[in-house]
Automatic annotation (TrEMBL), chain A:
Cellular component annotations (GO), alphabetically ordered: mitochondrial small ribosomal subunit
A GO MF label: structural constituent of ribosome
Name used for this protein in its record: Small ribosomal subunit protein mS31
First-listed, main subcellular location of the protein, grouped into a coarse class: mitochondrion
PANTHER family per UniProt: MITOCHONDRIAL RIBOSOMAL PROTEIN S31 (PTHR13231), SMALL RIBOSOMAL SUBUNIT PROTEIN MS31 (PTHR13231:SF3)
Gene: MRPS31
Keywords recorded for this protein, A-Z: Mitochondrion, Ribonucleoprotein, Ribosomal protein, Transit peptide
The family this protein is said to belong to: Belongs to the mitochondrion-specific ribosomal protein mS31 family.
UniProt key word Ribonucleoprotein: yes
UniProtKB/TrEMBL annotation, chain B:
Source domain of life: Eukaryota
Keyword Ribosomal protein (UniProt): yes
Protein name, per record: Small ribosomal subunit protein mS39
Signal peptide, first to last residue: none
Subcellular location, record wording: Mitochondrion
Region spans: Disordered: 207-230
């Protein structure tokens, strides 16, 4: 504990001129805000010395050594890579960089505070870090020169950390996740602002101004032509875009139904069977076709039996039944002389 | 008396129904009911209007669709398309591809046999008749030389036969109508004077896709791209000859010629033909303009600024001729702008805004081109654009239908960008969009689906907590995609970070199933992770079993390869693990 404190004090002592000894010796909790402000004033007034950077890095090493959490090598590297990557990807934004550059020292200070206060170290540390980050967001002025230098210092400090962190054994992801969450939330806030600004860019802005809505929505009288080969093939290509292997048996059945291979649900017994549009009474009541036959006598009997049989026949169509009766009519007409001999009247 | 009165009224109401029944049954009926006062009121108010609702007509697949919507994906089963014989269920992406190809080629072989011997397959016992199961006729029936014969051959897509028929017709002196000649030109231009390929769609589309992508990467060497395309427009081919022979040409003839030329990469001729069209005071249609835009963009040896100006010129002419642009117009422009890299960003956004201003709704392909333009090749020298967030905000919650053949490339590029930006929230957004409605169909063919899910899962391993990652692991693998060894290595690293190394033997078992038994990098990773630290004893036992398993795979691998490769690290790790588990003998 004391070791840390000494280190911390050494750090602040070498850093800037504006610090007074009183700040260091008073309880660090009171001093945090003052330290923040003073450090910010340092940044804004003086240029960051490279020596300070290096010393800052060393302190980072030692404080990291002393902390109870020991990030594993790979995770550290990954998070460092992720953070370096994310730094490069996002637009250069002052507050973020400053947070990164300040945080090693502030982190050291925060850890010292946490140690001092002796309660849950992790939570106090994370709370303090969050406070500091909020401070950073509030103040937005930054000089360009400082920005680039800080980014360089950033990278160096991060790199140094990675090198020293080899050989760590046990993993404690909690600390790392908190740290990363801090940076992620920061990035999230930043990207929200950027999103808003870019949204204006994507949807609003200059257009080509070649086409106008009015002329385009005018419906020119279209002559309907049959789709040409190009259209047909294009439609086939479009249909193929959406093609995916079938996901379940019902989808397969749907495809078969569309191809015509499967009966349509709900099952209709008469699907596809039209019967020439004739109704049941045309099948059953065939008396009207017997008008040309004699009204009495054996021929009538016979034809009534024929119609009775035909009305019960489900296999013939109406036309076929009428043809049947027609055939009988022709037959009896031909055989008139035989009938006359046996004395049967035809009319 | 009161009862009888009621019954009389009931009779009038239920006149049709009751028929000759006497009063008594009705009385009995009504007196038995508990709601006596209500019934009285109904009688008093008179006969109410019976509103017959309009009959609903259902689609023929409505019942099946309703049933299908109740079935969700089973994460423990193989996808439905693979469920045939349990032995044949594929366990890796190679196997699944060959499974699907085998299935499709079986169907094609059967169809081929039916169609080449139609006389054996004439019996039709299906009632009602199923036309698609009957043999198809591919040979032209009409033998005499007439225009009808020509039209039949065109319909059957027989290029050479129709050209011959056309020549015969001309020799015989009959004039061919404009329509028929136009459709002949269509046929010739679309297929580039070659017969339409009878290849399976599978292989054909894959080949052409790869050629496309390779061609685009080699855009600085146009000659190479031309050769790779294979089906070039030969000068003085049949299409041009017939075009010259036609006595009258209307705009359709010119248009189809231009489109054919652009399709087969005869760009300069297409542009020349366009000037001829204008000289003849004819109008081109929107498809022709799309083809011309593509021609302008593909022409070599010009700077991007000049090409862009030419495209703008074409657009202005289009507006002057009152030709309405459609979605393909803008998509073609964006596709061509993609090649201009940095220069293309501003024009692309302008085009996009124009499209929205006119009221043409952008499709997924539009967004895909935008993403490709802004996130080209993952170089981030100046900080990458944040346009993906805008795009996702626009698209969230919308359902799409296919409007452009390139619509299925969107999700792959979106996930690539998410993985590049290492943004898990965005990835969840993209995945949510994929799962809305029917959008899952836009995931594309196999390799794109695998790419999408590999990237998604790697991002999860990198950024998400381990419990959630393991849940996704169980959900996605193997029912949606088969992991590559790199994906499994990512998962192992995530486990390492989260200190859940006890899951490793399970992962090893899974990776054996997915065909990674002989991937040495995966095995080394597993062994190294297990051997690195000391663990509680039961875990050691499990690890040692796993190590023994891996050792046996190495030994069996020796049998397959001439030179055994036992990486030194693996040997070390195996020895250490055996020692820890007390299996000193094996060590």
């Amino acid at each position: 504990m004391t070791g840390t404190k000494n280190n911390v004090q050494r750090n602040f002592g070498t850093n800037s001129v504006n610090y007074s000894k009183k700040d260091e010796q008073s309880a660090p909790t009171h001093g945090i805000s003052k330290e923040t402000e003073s450090q910010e004033s340092v940044k804004e007034n003086t240029k960051k010395d490279l020596l300070d950077i290096i010393k800052g890095m060393k302190i980072e090493l030692s404080t990291v050594n002393v902390q109870t959490t020991k990030p594993s090598s790979r995770r550290q590297r990954k998070s460092v890579e992720a953070t370096i990557g994310s730094l490069q990807k996002t637009l250069e934004d002052a507050p973020k960089k400053r947070t990164k550059s300040v945080s090693p020292e502030l982190e050291a200070a925060a850890s010292a505070v946490a140690d001092f206060l002796r309660f849950d170290k992790q939570t106090t540390k994370s709370e303090l870090l969050r406070q500091l980050q909020q401070h950073e967001e509030v103040s937005k002025t930054q000089k360009d020169g400082e920005r680039t230098k800080i980014s360089v210092s950033n990278i160096i400090s991060d790199m140094k950390v990675a090198k020293s962190a080899t050989g760590r054994v046990s993993t404690r992801p909690v600390h790392q996740i908190q740290f990363d969450e801090g940076t992620d939330s920061l990035m999230g806030q930043k990207t929200d602002d950027l999103k808003k600004s870019l949204r204006k860019n994507m949807l609003k802005g200059k257009r080509l101004n070649i086409f106008y809505l009015k002329t385009v929505t005018e419906e020119a009288p279209k002559t309907e032509t049959a789709p040409s080969l190009w259209d047909v093939e294009f439609a086939k290509q479009l249909a193929m875009v959406n093609e995916q292997p079938l996901q379940n048996g019902f989808a397969e059945m749907i495809q078969w139904t569309k191809e015509g291979k499967l009966w349509e649900f709900p099952i209709d017994n008469e699907a596809g069977f039209d019967d020439d549009g004739s109704e049941f009474h045309e099948h059953v009541f065939l008396d009207k076709h017997l008008k040309d036959f004699p009204k009495q006598g054996p021929i009538r009997h016979f034809m009534e039996l024929v119609t009775c049989g035909l009305s019960k026949n489900p296999y013939l169509s109406v036309k076929q039944k009428i043809e049947h009766i027609e055939w009988f009519r022709n037959y009896f007409n031909e055989k008139q002389d035989i009938l006359k001999e046996s004395g049967i009247r035809l009319n | 008396r009161w009862l009888r009165f009621r019954c009389k009224v009931c009779l009038t109401l239920t006149g049709q129904r009751a028929g000759p029944c006497g009063q008594a049954p009705n009385c009995r009926f009504y007196s038995g009911s508990a709601t006596v006062p209500k019934v009285e009121r109904a009688n008093v108010t008179g006969i109410e209007e019976v509103v017959i609702p309009r009959k609903k007509t259902w689609d023929k697949v409505a019942v099946l669709q309703a049933l299908a919507s109740t079935v969700n994906r089973d994460t423990t089963a193989a996808p439905y398309a693979f469920q045939d014989d349990p032995y044949l269920i594929p366990t890796s992406s190679l196997e699944s591809r060959s499974f699907l190809l085998a299935k499709k080629s079986g169907e094609n072989a059967a169809k081929y046999i039916i169609n080449s011997h139609p006389k054996y397959f004439q019996k039709d016992i299906a009632e009602p008749h199923i036309p698609c199961l009957m043999p198809e006729y591919f040979e032209p029936q009409i033998e005499d030389i007439s225009e009808a014969a020509l039209r039949e051959r065109i319909k059957l897509k027989k290029v050479k036969a129709s050209v011959d028929m056309f020549d015969q017709l001309l020799q015989a002196g009959t004039t061919v109508s404009l329509e028929t000649s136009n459709s002949l030109l269509d046929l010739l231009c679309y297929y580039g004077d070659k017969e339409p390929s009878t290849d399976n769609h599978f292989q054909q589309s894959e080949k052409s896709e790869e050629l496309e992508e390779a061609a685009e990467e080699n855009n600085e060497k146009p000659k190479k791209a031309n050769h790779q395309f294979g089906n070039l427009w030969r000068p003085e081919n049949n299409a041009e000859r017939i075009f010259a022979l036609m006595p009258e040409k209307n705009s359709h003839s010119y248009c189809t010629m231009i489109r054919g030329m652009v399709k087969h990469r005869a760009l300069v001729q297409a542009l020349n033909l366009y000037t001829e069209l204008l000289n003849n005071k004819l109008h081109a249609d929107v498809y022709t303009f799309n083809a011309l835009i593509e021609a302008t963009a593909l022409s070599a040896h010009e700077k991007p600024e000049d090409k862009w100006n030419n495209i703008l010129e074409l657009l202005k002419q289009m507006a002057a001729q009152k030709v309405k642009p459609n979605l393909q117009t803008f998509n073609t422009i964006l596709k061509c702008l993609r090649r201009f890299h940095a220069f293309g960003k501003v024009p692309a956004l302008q085009t996009f805004r124009e499209m929205k201003a006119i009221g043409i709704e952008p499709s997924l392909a539009t967004y895909h081109y935008l993403i490709q333009l802004f996130y080209h090749h993952e170089n981030h020298s100046k900080g990458s654009s944040l346009i993906i967030y805008d795009i996702m905000n626009e698209l969230t919650g919308r359902k799409f239908s296919p409007r452009d053949p390139d619509d299925d490339m969107f999700f792959q590029s979106a996930m690539r960008v998410c993985s590049f930006l290492r943004d898990l929230e965005l990835a969840y957004q993209v995945h949510g969009l994929l799962n809305t409605g029917d959008n899952w169909k836009f995931i594309g063919p196999d390799h794109r689906r695998n790419f999408y899910y590999s990237k998604f899962f790697s991002l999860l391993c990198l950024m998400e907590q381990i419990d959630v990652t393991l849940k996704w692991y169980k959900d996605l693998i193997p029912s949606v995609f088969f992991p590559r060894s790199q994906t499994l290595i990512d998962l192992l690293q995530a486990l390492d970070v989260a200190n859940r190394l006890e899951v490793i033997p399970q992962i090893w078992k899974d990776s054996k199933e997915y065909g990674h038994t002989f991937r040495s990098d995966l095995k080394e990773e597993i062994l190294m992770l297990m051997a690195r630290d000391q663990h509680p004893p039961e875990l050691q036992v499990a690890f040692a079993n796993c190590a023994a398993d891996i050792k046996s795979t190495y030994e069996s691998q020796d049998g397959r390869q001439a030179a055994p490769e036992w990486p030194a690290n693996s040997l070390n790790s195996i020895a250490v693990l055996f020692l820890r588990a007390g299996r000193t003998q094996e060590a």
